[in-house]
Every structure is written in structure tokens, then in C-alpha cells.
Design brief:
Helices cover 52% and strands 15% of the residues of chain A. By secondary structure, chain A is of the alpha/beta class. Chain A binds a DNA duplex (30 and 30 nucleotides) through helix 7 and helix 9.
DNA sequence: CAAACAATCCCCTAAAAACATGATTTTCAG
DNA sequence: CTGAAAATCATGTTTTTAGGGGATTGTTTG
């Protein structure tokens, strides 16, 4: 008598992938899958799994809301959130709605099995990356930027190119480029999009 | 007896530019310039202009704060904000601090003279672009985006490239590219940086 | 005064994004 | 069932960034 697993995700590839990963596991019993929130709820009326793998983004309803609903009706079901997003807000919301785990869709077989075994014990499982994100969110190290860098940052956020910023500030575009590079380094941002995001999340706007 | 003008800006080129623009105007009397907030205040103790052109970004102090200070001590001085930024928050703050005008540093001669003549009458002058920004801010048209587009948007904001997003969502990078383009079009954003900015300002995060 | 920092500028390469255009398949609501 | 909307994929060009150097001028400050 193994752990009964059910999965709800609108990506067939994901369902198949996980099913394949788990099919060799003796102590896991695959109950099936649903691809929408509605069909998931319909299934649960007839049969309840021990663990439900639940996509955060479903076509008909948010996985976040669905999680809350299911835990209210069937508190015994341990829910593991499945997501492509390693985003603090999502993880937090899922945990707030009583999910027991959060794994990314690029998780390894070991990670998924580990997650299942962890939540079945009543514990919380977060994938490494997700745990990292949750940690980092409490240490929002705000970089120290200069006056000029801030000016450039605001103009970058406005969508101006280096050349346009240069014309606006009456300096060379090479200088703007240097400021941009320094900003990326200070914020540890990979590109301008994440730079702007960090600027918003850390205050500077 | 012309209108007495004084300018405070840390860019010598700007000072010279405006001085040059105004030197032929018979009814304008050029009192001089300051390049820091401190030297500006020192000058005002001895002599008060009718109109003060004031940079929003000074090296030692914010032009926004300085504006408030000056208007408190010398209410008769009409202050025109000078800025490279056509940003709603800046314009609003300067007007809140009793500035009488806001002109961009790329303004034409006519615009500056127009501004000076307007504020000397006790009226408010906003450069065309600034006025436009202030108008638009009251009409924050939120584009309607699809579920998938929103997913892509969040990943863009996280700093992922098209390829990385594609791998995460198990789709082709060409598709991500299409979503990105559609997002840029819907938000009327020029690039991903401004897209992220708009996403933050309009809610979607 | 020397060191640190800020701001300025330049060159180079490779990666990524922006722009244009077109097309197929799925999904969904009327 | 059917048409509109959404999601998918492709190809090619041009512009912009990202990442790696290096360098000069001021200013500030211990």
C-alpha cells in the first residue's frame, strides 16, 4: 500500500514526465491526473490522494486559490505546489494557503520523491532554489548608488537607450554605458529588466 | 528694467546654454549663476531675482527640497524647475513645493522665454512634454494580457532571457519572443526595462 | 597629501532584444 | 460548428546590451 499521488497541471508533458519519474517507485501509487481545476475538484469528490501535486498556474483558476479550497474541504491531502516560477510572492501565497511543499518544474527525480516523502510526514518541503529565494527576501541588501547612477537608472526604467540617455544628460553614450554596467554590478542584476524590477522592489522609484 | 534671472545648476554647459539663449533678450537681466544649493542660498541672501531657474538634481542637495526652502524664505521669487526628467513624480513634487514652472533641459529658446514670461505673471508653466506626462498619469490604461503573457512578463522581470524562459516553460524561444513582442505592443513599451516599470506601476506584480 | 570615489570617455566582442512578416494549431465562447 | 483569440513556431535583419578591458579628470576625505 503506497503513497497515493494525484497531479493537476495543464501541461501534459509535465504530467507524463512526473508519472514516468515515479513509475518505478514501489511505494507510490499513481491515481491519475487532471488538467483543470474543475476536473481536479470533480476527481477529489470521488477519491482523495495522500499527496496532490498542484500547478500554480492553471487555465481556468489560479492554483493558489484552488489550494486553499482543497485544503478547506480535504485537510488531510498534502499539497505540493508545482511551478515554473521561483518567485517569493508565489511561494509565500501557496504556503499561506496551506500547501506543504513547493518544487520547481525543473526539479530532479530525487527532489520530487524527497518532496513527497517529506510532506507525507507532515513536514514542509521547499526546493533548494525556492528556499534560497525565501531566505534572500529577508536580506534585501540595497546597493549604494551615486547621484548620477540614480539618474541613469530612472531613465533606463523609462525605456531610454544609452544613446537617448546620453543626449538627455549631455554626456557620451559610453559614459551612460559605464553607469549602466556599474548599476548592473551593484544590483547583481543580469539585465536591465531585472535591474528595474530590483529598483522597484528595493525602493528606488 | 528687465526681469532679473538667476540660475542654479551644476552643469556648466546648461548655464552657458541658457545664458546664451537669453543674452539677446532686452527685457531680461542676467544676475548670474550658482552651481550648488549652498552657493545659491548664499547669493539669495544678498540679492533676489524675479525668476530662479533651478535644477532638480544638484550635487549637494535635492532641488526639490531647495525649492521648498527658497519659497519659504523668499515667496516672491518665481521658481522654474529645470530637469532632464520628464517624470510625473518629479514634476508633482516640484509643484507641491511651490515651483511655478517645469521645463526640460532640451527646451527651445522660445519655450524658456515663454516659461519666464508666464511665471512672472504668476501663472504656472509646464513644458508640453511635462504637461502630457501629467495628463497621462490620470489615465493609466491597463492593457489586457493573457495568462501566458503574464507568466512571460514575470519571468522577464526576473531577468531571464528568451531562451531561459523557453526552457522554463517548455516552449520554443521563438514563442517567448512573440509573447515579449505582444507585451511590448500592449504596454506601448519601448523595451523590456520600461515594460517591467509599467508592470510595476500598473499593478501586475 | 595620498587614496578612494565619482564621473567622464574609449575600444572590442558576443549575446540578446527589437522589428518585420508570416503561419499553424488549440482553445473557447457564441 | 465556427470564427476569434490565444498560443505556438520560424526566419531574417538591425539595434542595443552585456561583458571584458583600460584610462583620465576632478573631488572628497581620512
Amino acid at each position: 500500500m503506497g503513497i497515493r499521488i494525484f497531479i493537476t497541471d495543464d501541461h501534459y508533458m509535465i504530467i507524463e514526465g512526473i508519472r514516468s519519474l515515479l513509475q518505478d517507485e514501489k511505494n507510490i501509487e499513481w491515481l491519475g491526473h487532471a488538467m483543470t481545476a474543475d476536473s481536479c475538484l470533480a476527481f477529489l469528490k470521488k477519491q482523495q490522494p495522500d499527496v496532490l501535486l498542484l500547478d500554480v498556474n492553471l487555465p481556468d483558476k489560479s492554483g493558489i486559490d484552488l489550494c486553499k479550497e482543497i485544503k478547506t474541504r480535504y485537510p488531510k491531502i498534502q499539497i505540493i505546489a508545482l511551478s515554473s516560477f521561483n518567485q517569493q510572492s508565489f511561494i509565500q501565497k501557496m504556503l499561506d494557503n496551506r500547501a506543504s511543499g513547493y518544487v520547481l518544474k525543473n526539479a530532479s527525480k530525487e527532489e520530487i520523491i524527497n518532496a513527497i516523502e517529506t510532506v507525507i510526514e507532515g513536514d514542509i518541503f521547499l526546493s533548494q532554489e525556492a528556499a534560497l529565494v525565501m531566505d534572500q527576501c529577508d536580506i534585501p541588501k540595497t546597493p549604494i548608488i551615486t547621484r548620477r547612477e540614480k539618474e541613469v537608472l530612472l531613465l533606463i526604467a523609462s525605456g531610454l537607450t544609452n544613446l537617448e540617455i546620453a543626449e538627455k544628460l549631455f554626456i557620451s553614450s559610453a559614459t551612460v554605458d559605464t553607469h549602466r554596467k556599474n548599476l548592473l554590478a551593484k544590483f547583481e542584476a543580469k539585465n536591465s529588466a531585472s535591474l528595474v524590477r530590483l529598483a522597484y522592489e528595493l525602493n528606488i522609484v
